[in-house]
Amino acid sequence: MRYYLNPQQELTNDENVMKLPESKITYKALGSLDDPQFVTFSTGFTKETEITSHIVAHLNVSVESSAEQQQSDPVVEADLDLFVTLWHLDSQGQEILYTGAVGDPVSLTKGWLRCSLRKVEDKHPQHRSYLPYRQYFSTDEELLTPNIIYAVDVEIWPTNVVMNGGDTLVLEIASGDTTGSGLFRHESKVDRDPAPLAGWNNIHLGGGKLNYLELPIIPQNS
How do 168-174 and 81-89 pair as beta strands? Predict the structure, then answer.
């Protein structure tokens, strides 16, 4: 089932949000645990709902280079890192934490994408709408042009959770590690060269563009 992102930062089942006037939500690039940069979208559940299997987030994104980059090279090629997290809140708005690989408290699930490696092999027999198939070849790399909108699919780790009536699911989209990242963080300047990543990240809504979180909802009678 698809939950669509809207300008009110909600997740809704109404596909007509794509018909709204175009808008964008902006957050700073190169976030970190010490300086998290993110936006959130959420939906509440009125009855017990099971989510089990693979999840994907489809987003329309762009990058704005920093002022320093624009002055030195206005047509510089850029990149954009997406850090996606799903949080489970109870009916009182408190985070429900799960156990990570080393016993640490973590969120429901996470996913990542470096947008220069966004290419999807949609003709591959293993490709699914909910599980984009990628080869991650170095020849697949395609950097981003600032201020151009790109549609990307972010694979999110499969999970299993039962949302109770009154619970809330929060989709967090960040530009770096946030709470619940565990031991394995993305802090190396070799892996995350600030030059192509610095600036601002945008999520573009409306104007005919669909942004959604595809959730594997299990029917109650199954």
Answer: antiparallel
Residue of 172, 201, 212 whose CA lies nearest to 81: 201
CA max distance for the chain: 60
Which residues contact residue 39 at a Cβ distance below 8 angstroms, ignoring those fewer than 6 apart?
Answer: 9, 25, 27, 172, 173, 174, 203
Q: How far apart are CA 114 and CA 24, in angstroms?
A: 20
Of 90, 125, 95, 119, the closest CA to residue 107 belongs to 95
Q: Which residues contact 173 (CB under 8 A, 6 or more apart)?
A: 27, 38, 39, 40, 41, 57, 59, 82, 83, 84, 203
Domains of the chain: 36-53+65-178+194-205 (2.60.120.260)
**pTM passes above 0.70:** yes
Asked if pLDDT for residue 75 goes beyond 60, the answer is no
End-to-end CA separation in angstroms for the chain: 16
**What percentage of the chain carries pLDDT values higher than 70?**
94
